Amino acid sequence: DVKVTQSSRYLVKRTGEKVFLECVQDMDHENMFWYRQDPGLGLRLIYFSYDVKMKEKGDIPEGYSVSREKKERFSLILESASTNQTSMYLCASSFPGGRQFFGPGTRLTVL
Amino acid sequence: AQTVTQSQPEMSVQEAETVTLSCTYDTSENNYYLFWYKQPPSRQMILVIRQEAYKQQNATENRFSVNFQKAAKSFSLKISDSQLGDTAMYFCAFSYNTDKLIFGTGTRLQVFP
Predict the structure, then answer these.
(1) What is the rounded distance in angstroms from the CA atom of residue B100 to the CA atom of residue B73?
(2) Spatial separation of the C-alpha atoms in residues B113 and B106, rounded to whole Å
(3) Minimal Cβ distance to B104: which of A42, A58, A92
(4) Between B47, B103, B104, which is nearest A99 by CB?
(5) What are phi and psi of B86, to 5 degrees?
(6) Nearest CA of chain B to the CA of A101: how many Å?
(7) Which residues on A lie below 8 Å from B91 (Cβ)?
(8) CA distances in angstroms from A87 to A2, A61, A100, A102, B25, listed in the order given
(9) Model confidence pLDDT, tens digit, residues B20-68
(10) CA–CA separation, B112 vs B4, rounded Å?
(11) Between the N and C ends of chain A, which has fewer C-beta atoms within 10 Å?
(12) What pLDDT is attached to residue B2?
């Protein structure tokens, strides 16, 4: 079974803190994704990576950055967390042209 | 720009009954893919069904089937013989020419005993 894991299920941070969300997949997928899920807005793509060290901005990249140093790991970074970044963050991975497999999500609260 | 619209924020159905979730999309592309994803409460999102736009035949997966109307840009999901385990958020999604998905806002389905 494909496994996509995320480092935390719940996270509470303070405004201005630097936040790292980690995602690891075990299927050797080339593609990895970070989404943000908010009620009434569905899932919105933050960043997408199609290979190690490669990244592409999604629909809402402002306030976020990403890192992909190894194929299996894709990190989302909030350089200076703000309250409007309180949300559920979902990671996913796939082969090119293949279905996306999702992680369990990280519910981030920024106080 | 491509958009995906789910006009039913919430729906409910009794166990063993049939329910249909609606999805419309907007695109000028001719070849694309459509998906329904399911997100159970506190559990991971999983793919329910996928449809290639070039295929006229509607996709089916056990109790789940779609009604794909390309001209109308409509992609509804029918769940037959609903079960309690079908209770979840359902998201319609679209992709073309890339691996990026565009999601609708979701429909929360509650199955009652």
Answers:
(1) 19
(2) 23
(3) A42
(4) B47
(5) -85, -10
(6) 7
(7) 42-43
(8) 25, 14, 21, 16, 25
(9) 999 999 999 888 999 999 999 988 999 999 999 998 899 999 999 999 9
(10) 28
(11) N
(12) 84
